[in-house]
Design brief:
The protein is α/β, with parallel strands linked by helices and 425 residues long. It has 2 domains: 239 residues, 4-Layer Sandwich (Metallo-beta-lactamase, Chain A), CATH 3.60.15.10; 162 residues, Flavodoxin domain (Rossmann fold), CATH 3.40.50.360. Helix content is 34%, strand content 22%. The protein contains 14 helices and 21 strands. The protein has a 7-stranded mixed sheet with strand order 1-2-7-8-9-10-11. Strands 12-13-14-15-16 form a 5-stranded mixed sheet. α6 packs antiparallel against α7 and α9 packs across α13. The chain binds MU-OXO-diiron. The site of MU-OXO-diiron has 9 residues, from α2.
Length: 425
């Protein structure tokens, strides 16, 4: 009784030769995989050469080699393309190159930096390719398209030009294991497709849009990703879905020229809430900035990540309790890993009883996430005084002016920070 599917024909002379991993329940530690995943590899036969596009995770190499041997001899392989060097695709590369030493490896410029580190050898010969480069297999041409950050900096797509088959790497993929392979035959994988986009592609949505501009004009008949179903039914619809998911929405709501500042706070006795209100008032006095104020109390499950993804700046207020900011604040900050936040502006403020560490801790975390923190935060002991509320209004005003460009960009020196710190202690 056969337990594994054979190499599967996608077009005459083009086969899926990947591996199935139905038992996998977590990918890269952070992604849940409800029914496993596939590591897709493809074999493309030309009149005078055979290409292998991507390999598989090392643990599944035997399965991959067994399928590859069904459709090609190792001495026929002239070309190996790695669209992406993450180990789930490069794991079987060293062994493939040992079995097919005559083959030439094609990778992107960024991939060469990772190649040695990942395969632990510096003896692999390779050629760097970029958009516009091609390899002629004889009657079949492989064209390369640079698509960085889908999902690592090294990523590229490879088109079998005459067939209109795009080997897209992680892009348009998903962790969904179904041996029926084609999107018109497998089970309902919409959840997996969306989940994969949200966790793998979403932080790089600007790169997704650039890649779509590059790839959408191609006359595609099939998208063959590195994970999950091969998309032969309505492949363009998956590109359209990526465009919907990656497109910014906020400019349609507040106007393209308006900047967005979100003020989040949580407050035990209303003191940090008063400071938040003052920050918002100060920011609202600057024309061209839309200010939104949110209480993090009972905020679990609210779509703040979606709002932050589209905002230009965040101000976060927290009391200090037991020398720390409070959990809802850390929950909010730890939820930002799935979006791009670098280059947004950040600020912190809050009331405290006797130590007030939360403000510095929040600022450090914002900087760690690569937000720019242009203004030192405001701390107030217990009930904020009128002077402290005025400083909160000034914080909001300055933050807004940084957004509108009415305040010159500056870098605060460490000595300046320490001077401010001691004057407000
Ligand atoms: Fe499927 Fe980013 O590796």
């Amino acid at each position: 009784m056969k337990t594994m599917p054979d190499a599967t024909e996608i077009a005459p002379g083009i086969h899926w030769v990947g591996a199935l991993d139905p038992a996998l329940r977590e990918f890269d530690i952070i992604l849940r995989t409800a029914n496993g995943t596939t590591y897709n590899s493809y074999c493309v036969r030309g009149e005078h050469g055979v290409a292998v596009i991507d390999t598989v995770k090392a643990s599944h190499a035997d399965e991959f080699f067994a399928r590859l041997e069904q459709v090609a001899r190792y001495d026929e392989i002239t070309t190996i393309v790695l669209n992406h060097l993450e180990p789930d695709h490069s794991g079987a590369l060293p062994e493939l190159m040992r079995r097919a030493p005559q083959a030439k490896l094609y990778i992107s410029a960024k991939a060469q930096l990772m190649l040695k580190a990942l395969v632990q050898t510096d003896t692999l010969a390779f050629e760097v390719v970029q958009t516009g480069d091609a390899v002629d297999l004889g009657g079949r041409t492989l064209r390369f398209y640079s698509t960085p950050f889908l999902h690592w900096p090294d990523t590229q797509c490879t088109l079998a030009a005459e067939d209109g088959i795009l080997f897209s790497g992680d892009a348009f993929g998903c962790h969904f294991c179904d041996a029926r392979l084609f999107n018109d035959r497998v089970g309902d994988f919409r959840f997996s497709f969306e989940y994969y986009y949200q966790h793998i592609m979403r932080p790089f949505r600007e790169h997704v849009l650039e890649a779509l501009d590059l790839l959408a004009p191609l006359p595609l008949r099939v998208i063959a990703p590195a994970h999950g179903p091969v998309l032969r039914d309505a492949p363009q619809s998956y590109m359209q879905r990526y465009r919907q998911l990656a497109a910014p929405l906020l400019p349609n709501e507040i106007g393209a020229g308006t900047r967005s500042l979100l003020v989040f706070y949580i407050s035990s006795y209303g003191n940090t809430a008063r400071m938040a209100q003052a920050v918002a008032e100060g920011a609202e006095s600057e024309a061209g900035v839309r200010v939104s104020l949110y209480d993090l109390q009972s905020s679990a499950g609210l779509p703040f990540v979606d709002l932050i993804e589209e905002a230009d700046a965040l101000a976060i207020g927290s009391p200090t309790i037991n020398g720390d900011a409070v959990k809802p604040v850390w929950d909010l900050l730890s939820s930002l890993a799935v979006i791009k936040v670098c280059d947004k502006l950040g600020a912190a403020f809050g009331s405290y009883g006797w130590s007030g560490e939360a403000i510095n801790m929040i600022e450090d975390r914002l900087r760690g996430l690569k937000l720019r923190v242009p203004i030192k935060g405001v701390r107030a002991r217990l009930i904020p005084t009128e002077e402290e509320l005025a400083r909160c209004r000034d914080l909001g005003k300055q933050l807004a002016q940084h957004l509108t460009g009415n305040l010159e960009r500056r870098v605060i020196s460490m000595s300046e920070l320490l001077a401010q710190e001691s004057s407000h202690a």
